[in-house]
Amino acid sequence: MNKGEFNPVFALRNEKIVHISEVERGRKCGCKCPVCNGLLIARKGEQLSHHFAHYAKTNCEYSGESALHFAAKELLSKAKKMVIPAVSLKFPDSCRPDELIHEAMEIDIDRVDCEKYFGNVIPDVVVYSGKKFFFIEIYVTHGIDERKLAKLKEARVSTLEIDLSKRNGTVTPEELSHLLLDNCEEKTWVYNAKAEQYYQMFLRAADKKPIVQRGFALHVDGCPLRCRIWHEKPYANYFDNCYYCKYHITTVHTEDSVEDIGEIGYKYIYCSGAKRIANIVDFKQE
User: Fold this and answer.
1) What 8-state DSSP symbol labels residue 118?
2) What are the distances in angstroms from CA 166 to CA 7, 21, 142?
3) Among 44, 103, 160, 174, which is most buried by a count of CB atoms within 10 Å?
């Protein structure tokens, strides 16, 4: 077992996933490994937390996280329905509030796959509902890193993350069922294709305006709202006007450090003020 991982608490018995609490101790558990099909024993002592282990030495990489993936697949397959959390559009580097796209909703589950290649991504679980599908990642010891997130964005596949990091692998079947099927704070979208689609629409509707440093102030010239005027030319103060403006989509920063560029690192903003696009509903009024 690798450092940081926990021992598996789910196993396969009579072609069904069972929890360590549901079986007898030792070989009497009658369980097999869902990865290599090897015989498992149930270690239910008084000092260590109860868990499964291979009866014979093996190179099988079956771990607590793999066990959770298989258990999640079986629970979802049997449930046929689940609740997906609300989807909101977020505006990075802006004081704009998130914009709700849709509330949490119950969906049908038609099919479930587990730990299979999907292009260059191996999601923990794939859920199919009608003509759509999405990924579920179960976060135990490592969340989705930037590299995997980039692959998900490239594939444009919505992905839910279920956070079990604070439970140390002690999740019960009832708890896992609640986390998978109900609406709960541990289940969140780390990437949502619909939200990304709307965000790109905002960027296309926006003008990219440079942020100019003048003395101690940061200015954006050509403000469509004419917040400030200097010699008959409109401009805005970035902090006083742009940052809190409903048309401020995002701010892009330089990749260089502050010391290297000799400035404070602001490069330009995306402003949708010229088209008066502030909310999703504004696209329907164009």
Assistant:
1) B
2) 15, 20, 12
3) 160
Please say whether the beta carbons of 223 and 235 come within 8 A: yes
**So what's the pLDDT on residue 101?**
96
pLDDT tens for 215-232 read: 889 999 999 999 999 999
- What is each CA distance from 232 to 221, 222, 224, 229, 274, in whole angstroms? 12, 11, 13, 6, 18
Q: What is the pTM of this model?
A: 0.81
Mean pLDDT of the chain: 87
pLDDT of residue 29: 94
How far apart are the C-alpha atoms of 259 and 283, rounded to whole Å? 41
Distance CA 188, CA 69 (A): 17
Q: Are 9 and 67 in contact (CB under 8 A)?
A: yes
Long-range contacts of 207-215 (CB under 8 A, 24+ apart): 207/270, 207/271, 207/272, 207/273, 207/274, 208/268, 208/269, 208/270, 209/268, 209/269, 209/270, 209/271, 210/267, 210/268, 211/238, 211/251, 211/266, 211/267, 211/268, 211/269, 213/263, 213/264, 213/266
Residue 95 has pLDDT above 90, yes or no: no
Q: Which residue is associated with the tokens 């609406």?
A: 183
CA–centroid distance for 175 within its chain: 20
Residue at token pair 């629970």: 75
How far is it, in rounded angstroms, from Cα 271 to Cα 202?
9
Say which DSSP state 115 is in.
S
Provide the pLDDT for residue 257.
Answer: 41
Exposure class string for 172-187: b at 16+ Cβ within 10 A, else e? ebeebbebbbeebebb
The lowest-confidence range among 196-210, 252-266, 270-284 is 252-266
Angle between helices 173-181 and 64-79 (to 10 degrees): 60
